[in-house]
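Q: What would this chain look like folded?
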Amino acid sequence: MVRIKADEVARDNSVDKVEQILQGAMQEFLQNGYAGTSMDRVAVAASVSKATVYSHFQDKEGLFKVLIEQLANQKFSSLFDTEPMEGEPKIVLRQFGTKLLEQMNNDQEHSAFMRVLIGESGRFPELTQICVRAMIKPMLETITQYLAAHPELNISDPEATARIILGTLVNFHITQNVMHGKDIIPMESDRLIDALTHLITNCAD
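A: My prediction, written as structure tokens:
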């Protein structure tokens, strides 16, 4: 029994260390970008030894990949786990758009992380590909499946339409928040969501 409890404590400590390292890494990546961040700096920010960082993550790319995947899983779960895409399209699409924009707009860390990804995409395209694979692709697949399950919408290409929906919302967030453009091209998010929902569901009218 003592051995089992000791193993459980060790696992808990390991999970805590990983989370500690990821938090430190996020801090460093946001402050210094991918290229300017080192495993040494991550160790200092996380208040752990460099050996501890390497015991959990092989290299900086692996650490960044886990950070993106964790962020993607959190975003996806908060969007779809509590409120799956089920129900009448005009209601569901409006709710999805509202929730996604609220989630992105209210999370300053997410906006800052997007700036890092976009800024590093030229030198490190494989990193932004991780984001597309872990975050964008699952969302597109979920929206596509929902649209395909509603033939009354008369949508000939659900996959392309899913890209239009997600692309419109992400572009709105990037231009308004990531690129600080809301004072230059101001628009209320509700107005965009209403127009987008109307465009998608109008085919059924």
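The two ends are 66 Å apart (CA to CA).
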